[in-house]
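Lab meeting minutes (informal)
Scribe: AK
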Amino acid sequence: MLGRFKIYMRQKRPAHDPLPDGVRLRAQYRDKHCTSPSEDMVTKYLDSPSEKAWLDYEQKYLEILEARFRENHQPFEELAELSRKQDVYLGCTCPTKKNPNVWHCHTVLALKFMKEKYPDLVVVFPAS
């Protein structure tokens, strides 16, 4: 199974949001994971979040994932294989004050990307 979890950077994890059991992979821009966004695109989006900015972010991020996949699909294959064997969660700090909509997080786009590339994968999306 492949899903996502929230990373709490400067505060204690609240009791109502325990860490999920399974493999937790940080996937923020500084983590250099195959699903990490670039720092400049995150900064640009968070400087002025809007629906248009999100659509631009989404398009650019998916282009980045496609390019990475074409150049070297092995990290994606490894993520898929690990997710078939155990529960794996991609981590990000979203939702935040600047980006309160968890569906406007790169991890959700990464989950959609992985489901498209690996249709047999069990993917769990956040609650709406």
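Next up, CB showed the second protein from the same session:
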Amino acid sequence: MSGIGNTWLLVAIAGAAGTLFRYGLGDWLARATGGTFPWETLAINTFGSLAIGVLAGLVDRGALLPPPIRMALMAGFLGGFTTFSTFALETMRLAEGAEWSAAAAYIALTNVAGLAAAWVGIKAAGA
């Protein structure tokens, strides 16, 4: 299998692991907190953002994470665990580049578009 094929396979396996980890941790946290507030989602998104920040920081400092492993961890595991981690990293990269208006626009657009899309989806489903 070629290098790209191996990377795709690693990302897929890591994505499945991240998804299963999110499901298990989310279920446990929901039961532990009583399920009256989405603490599990807040915790998972916060942890995922911390994890992608640590990985990006290590790579930025020259850590030798081969690209397939980096992609498996960041796009695969953390992508399956939470896409909020990618959003957080992309926003931080804009802010680090002093692209403040772009970072603010990205935050606003992501939230407004996401909420609007969820509302449209609910209405389209007839709810």
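CB comment: Residues 3-33 form the longest helix (31 residues).
No objections, moving on.
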